[in-house]
Amino acid sequence: MTLVALRRLEDGDQAKKINEKIRELEQKLEEKKLEERTSESSYTINLDDSGNMKGLLVRFLHESNLIQSTSPKIRMSGANLRKVELSDAPIQETNLESAWLTGGNLTNTNLTGVILNNASLQQVKLENTILRGAQLINTDLRNTIIKGDLDLTNANLHNACINEKVKYVKTNISQDTLRNLGARLTDNPLSISCKDIQ
């Protein structure tokens, strides 16, 4: 979805820059495939998992001011960002409303002011993540792994779903902390959307 949307942008200079970045990412992917085929090292790069490419794409869209939290040029609603690798990414003030980040890695990620309303963060790893002022209204946080210091200062978790399977590992956050910020505890299966749970 996002590559097709990027190629259809009509903003001349911006479209050229985006197309150049897409070609550069495609070239890097081809180089990695070649390197993997010819490498004799003891490790291999798993290119079947597109989490790294999704992470690069989100970072690029953020740096290009295309998915900023106010007036985004590209809407990420429903975007498949499953298993996205965004560790150490400074993507603050970004609009990822209704995106699917299930199983992603947000370790040491700066998500200050990010809009994640109605997003799926099931099974996401939140380790030392900054969510200061983030909007997580109706966000699905079931089975999330919370580790280390999480900054939830002024975050809005109104009606966010959590369950008993959220893992709290050496963290300053507890189930009570999330509930005090507006999250609600549910025992519904993951197949039921958080938005459909009353």
Gist?
This protein has 198 residues and is of the alpha/beta class. The protein has two domains: 1-48, no CATH class; 49-196, E3 ubiquitin-protein ligase SopA (Pectate Lyase C-like, 3 Solenoid), CATH 2.160.20. It is 26% helix and 8% strand.
Question: What can you see in these coordinates?
Answer:
With 198 residues, the chain is of the alpha/beta class. It has two domains: 1-48, no CATH class; 49-196, 3 Solenoid (Pectate Lyase C-like), CATH 2.160.20. It has four helices and five strands; from the N terminus they run αααββββαβ. The protein has helices spanning 2-7, 12-38, 51-63, 175-180; strands spanning 125-127, 145-148, 161-162, 167-171, 184-185. Strands 1-2-4 form a three-stranded parallel sheet, with no helix packed on it. A two-stranded parallel ribbon has the order 3-5. The radius of gyration is 18 Å and the shape is globular.
Topology:
Layout: H1 2-7, H2 12-38, H3 51-63, E1 125-127, E2 145-148, E3 161-162, E4 167-171, H4 175-180, E5 184-185
Parallel strand pairs: 1-2, 2-4, 3-5
Outline, from the CA principal axes?
globular
Tell me what the CATH architecture of the largest domain is.
3 Solenoid
Would you report the number of β strands? 5
Radius of gyration: 18 Å
Total helices: the number is 4
CATH C-level category of the largest domain: Mainly Beta
N/C terminus separation: 31 Å
Report the β-strand fraction as a percent range.
5-15%
- The strands making up the biggest β-sheet line up spatially as 1-2-4
Indicate how many domains the architecture comprises: 2
Secondary-structure element pattern, one letter each: HHHEEEEHE
Characterize the main sheet. Answer: 3 strands, parallel
SS-derived structural category: alpha/beta
Report mean pLDDT, rounded to a whole number: 82
- The level of helicity is 25-40%
Low-pLDDT segments: 38-48
